[in-house]
Automatic annotation (TrEMBL):
InterPro entries, per the entry: DUF2752
Presence of the UniProt keyword Transmembrane in the record: yes
Record keywords, A-Z: Membrane, Transmembrane, Transmembrane helix
Highest taxon in the source lineage: Bacteria
Official protein name in the record: DUF2752 domain-containing protein
Transmembrane portions of the chain: 21-39, 82-103, 124-142
Length: 146
């Protein structure tokens, strides 16, 4: 990962668009917290059931994520950790990186300031995704063995 550019006040010229993966992660993150808010406000009655858990009784790697996010919204970080520790750690890390990218793009689009953008090579991004998928698979298997 590298940081390109320096801070520029009142930038001019074309604004480099955000990668579609950043917009996708933004949508998933915002949608997840909206779902967690609805889940919390409905008294834990409205949520998305896990098809794997409903059909097999096994927990997928993402099972408990809505309850985890709802616990985070309440400030119950111990409860959030209990529901899904992997997403509890990865979610905020990914959220900060994605949020910074969206903030930098927004400020530059408004012509206020150009902040350095985080850049990853295509290969590094692919390996990061493969690593996260592998971690989730290992966690999904391990959580059903305990």
């Amino acid at each position: 990962m590298s940081v390109s550019q320096s801070v520029v006040l009142r930038p001019t010229g074309p604004v480099q668009p955000l990668d579609r993966r950043v917009w996708g992660l933004t949508t998933v993150g915002v949608g997840g917290f909206l779902l967690a808010g609805v889940y919390q406000l409905s008294g834990q009655r409205i949520g998305i059931p896990c098809i794997l858990h409903a059909t097999t009784g096994l927990n997928c790697p993402l099972c408990g994520s809505t309850r985890m996010a709802a616990a985070m919204l309440r400030g119950d970080f111990g409860g959030a950790w209990h529901f899904n520790p992997v997403v509890f750690v990865l979610g905020p890390l990914i959220g900060v990186a994605v949020g910074y990218q969206v903030l930098a793009w927004s400020l530059e689009s408004l012509r206020l300031v150009r902040l350095p953008r985080l850049r990853m090579s295509r290969r590094a991004a692919d390996w990061t995704v493969y690593g996260i998928i592998a971690l989730l698979i290992v966690y999904g298997v391990a959580r059903n063995l305990v």
